[in-house]
Amino acid sequence: DIGNGKTMFLQGLSYILYQQGYNIFLLENNAISSISEAIDICNNAEGKIVFIVENYTYKIDLLAKAKQVNSEVIVVISERTSIYESNYLLLEKISNEPFINVNIDSLTDGEIAQLVKIIDANGLWRDKASWSFEKKCNQIIRQNKRHFGKFRHKH
Length: 155
Prior knowledge:
Distance between the termini: 25 Å
Number of strands: 3
Structural class: mainly alpha
Shape: elongated
Strand order of the largest sheet: 1-2-3
Largest sheet: 3 strands, parallel
Helix content: 40-55%
């Protein structure tokens, strides 16, 4: 939950969406964003608009207003599981449409395989470089409990 890669996931997603022609607006936790700024973006930005927000509970009113002004706005949010579970009903303020939940707390087998390939390609296994592909995958499954945030390279 903490350090599971939410920020990295959102940065990667924003890059992919940008490459696909979306206008990306990151609402930072410490940014002084106002509802009027969100309305200006919704009214003046051309093309597809995506607001990406970490810790969405602090920006819920702003996101709700943006969605009212422009129903085509896409909202991507993240929150720690414990906070999400106690505040998920706030999402109804943003939209009546169903939300797609993506749990990034645990890596799937496919994601683990891709991660092992990335680590191999960048020579980051060091003393474990000679291990088989399966042993490297098992290292992430057993030792890291499928969590990306728990993967640490010791120098």
